Amino acid sequence: MTKYLHTMIRVSDPDATVAFFKLIGLEEVRRFDVEAGRFTLIFLAAPGQEDVAEVELTYNWPAEDGSAPEEYDGGRNFGHLAYRVENIYETCQAILDAGHTVHRPPRDGHMAFVKTPDGISVELLQDGNLEPQEPWASMPNSGSW
Fold first, then answer.
1. 1-19: b (≥16 Cβ within 10 Å) or e
2. Eight-class DSSP state of 29
3. 3 state DSSP class of 100
């Protein structure tokens, strides 16, 4: 039997990325610092979804010689993560209030796209249906998603 475990994304700032996912409702469920390999693994999940559907954040530590850290752009052809949220308008507003961009606003009250601090696309889907509301209904797309 096959069982889904997690999706891994590489991050350049673990604290900023954990804070971003908290805006969506995810919580840190465990963390491992691996000194021999010079990386940190942080696992996040929605409440009650531990060991069911998790995101693994991989942070590769900067080189000991002081050289520039790895940069991740384009998500290495990664598509997106998707989460169902209780209120898409409140979630998107929290994301905006924290200084992030809602790249595809929830004009229809159902779907939005945002990006993590490292540019990973995250799709937000409304649990149930909400009527279209302003300012979301008139808000244009921003950038790519």
1. eeeeeeeebbbbebeebbe
2. E
3. coil
Question: Is 123 annotated in the active site?
Answer: yes
Strand pairing report for 111-115 and 121-126: antiparallel
> Which range is most confident: 52-56, 69-73, 77-81?
52-56
Distance CA(56)–CA(66), nearest Å, equals 26
| 3 state SS of 89 | helix
Tokens, residue 44: 């996040």
Are 142 and 114 in contact, with CB atoms under 8 Å apart? no
> Which residue of the set 70, 123, 131, 134 is catalytic?
123
Q: What is the pLDDT of residue 3?
A: 73
Q: What's the pLDDT score for residue 105?
A: 97
Report the residue count for the chain: 145
> What are the tens digits of pLDDT across the range 109-136?
999 999 999 888 899 999 998 999 999 9
Residue with tokens 């954990």: 18
